[in-house]
Predict the 3D structure of the following.
Amino acid sequence: MDSLDRAFIPSGAKRCSLFQFTSFISVIGIVFLWGVYAMLLIWIKGLNQTNMNDAYGFALWIWADLAVIALGGGAFFTGLLRYVIGKDELKNIINYAVIIGFICYSSALLILAIDIGQPLRGWFIFWHANVHSMLTEVAFCLSCYFIVLTIEYLPLIFENPQIDKIPFYHKLSHNMHDVMAIFAATGAFLSFFHQGSLGGVSGVMYGRPFAYREGIFIWPWTFFLFTWSAAACGPCFTIALTKLIEKITKKKLVKDNVIDLLAKISGWMLASYTIAKIIDTIYWVYSTLPPQGHKFMDFYSNNSFYGLWILILEVVIGGAVPAFILVSEKLRCNKSYLTIAVILAIIGVSVNRWVMVVQALAIPVLPFESWTFYIPSWQEVATTILPVAYGVILIALSYRYLPIFPQEKELNN
Amino acid sequence: MSEASNHGASKMYGMVIDLDKCTGCGACMVACMAENNVPFKEDESDKLKSITWLRLYKLNNGKPFPDVQICYLPRPCMHCGGEGNHGHSPCVSVCPATATDYDLETGIVSQIYTRCFGCRYCMAACPYHARYFNWWDPVWPEGMERYLNPNVSVRMRGVVEKCSFCYHRYQIAKNNAYNNGSREVLEHEYQTACTQACPAGSITFGDLNNPKHEVYKLKQNKNAFRLLEKLKTNPKVYYISKLEWVRKLGDNYRS
């Protein structure tokens, strides 16, 4: 069994024993199965298994969906930088970024399939498409981009030593690599629209003053802010997971200059995004809200949970602070500061998605209604953890059997 | 377009509810549920999972006894027309599968149950909480299936539903009008179940564009208001109250 396993491991790569690996996968597999059980319960018994209600039509899942898509943004943005803009050093991290993106987007599609009340009718979104709905745009672009990610992931799978021995796959992989720039550009184009339309989902809800934003033509400002923040924070997630896999495997897998370049670009993107977000918030407070009869503090008071702290957490702690660290060469070269910065950026973008979806629904719009809160059921939690377990398993399998990190050999021999 | 020519072009069905007459008896809610086969559960204590196409709110002026005043506010779907009344309702515009539609002929926002796949985006977009999700399949007490309204389809688990202004009654009225050689549905020929059930005559229903209809006059009452007008949802449900605090509760007013 061990020799069979070794035959599938890329040559020159050192991996843990098969026993260690299967033990790790088994532990994660239990969590995965727990999530699958919850998923089946929901599909069989319906959404009454959740704690969602008529006030919370969108809840934990939609937040998870938006968050993983934002964090998966590292794939399209790194691809854009590598193949279209020509940042060649990023070839050493692009494979990993693609795998993370693949996991994030497949998870998003799975969560959507769990979240809809009539899963067997999911295809209606394509068949009876309402072209005016932001969610339609999300569905089309998300599905198309997932296909692009699959195409980007496939040549990597073909590079497995055993598959690579088959001439057809060897050549196919080679040829796919040659045309990857086209797919990277397509992916960036599609991502611009689906990240944006996810922002548009809340931004167009003119009946919800907290979420609603003015904009240009059919696009609310959130359209651009979501794309921007995904491009800024997605690479931070890629860096964070690179650091995590290095920690777990106790190996250096990517050279510092690669991480530094990605961190620097991410820092400038995050800094400019944070400025744009602050301008958007000020414009919303002073121009959009007053005609709707609302004041800024309506959304941060008279309730037991949502206060100004969440805005500070999102914009300052999760935006300005990591941007400052990542922009400063001295700070981002310090490993601890870099780790803190990418974690804060991940928190910042996740909080942004939370407030735009969940806080937006918690806030009363009718003057005689009050705030509503919800705590997710264990089925919702389990199905939200399911993609995490699935992601860990896929990364573990990919790392073990595929040459993800081109610099691994050089850095560890 | 002038009001007269607009009347010729399309109808705009709507409601005027005189809150000063409403006693909060709930007959409108019961009539609505019976007419539209609205499902209910054995345990209805969790109101956030109850389906009430027409919900009765109990409002108060926020003052302590003896100055406290109470007002009951029935809230059906507002059948918003959106700015300019072009059908850009908060919910219709967002539905990804065109499962909800704005009928330009009547101004009624419909819900196509067999097309809805339960994404609930419309619920999130509606500021009135007028849309409800079927968290369960309907279970009728034994024998009750025989009392369901055959003109209204029952809904399955996993889809959104809402007040339709008893649209099936409009279809029947239109058919009858056609069969009787008349092209026009008269005011009394199309009335919603809640309107007919209200013992206090608080609810008036009709074509807001038609000067012959009662609602046309009532909506011009100086004490008439609509909920959340500032959001420009353009609802078709008007309320009347002589009490200023009630009118002020209809929207978010700031000094």
Q: What stands out?
A: The beta strands of chain B are 13-18, 55-60, 70-75, 100-102, 109-111, 131-133, 160-162, 203-207, 224-225, 237-240. DSSP finds seven helices and ten strands in chain B. Residues 3-248 of chain B form a domain with the Alpha-Beta Plaits fold (CATH 3.30.70.20). The first strand of chain B starts at residue 13 and ends at 18.
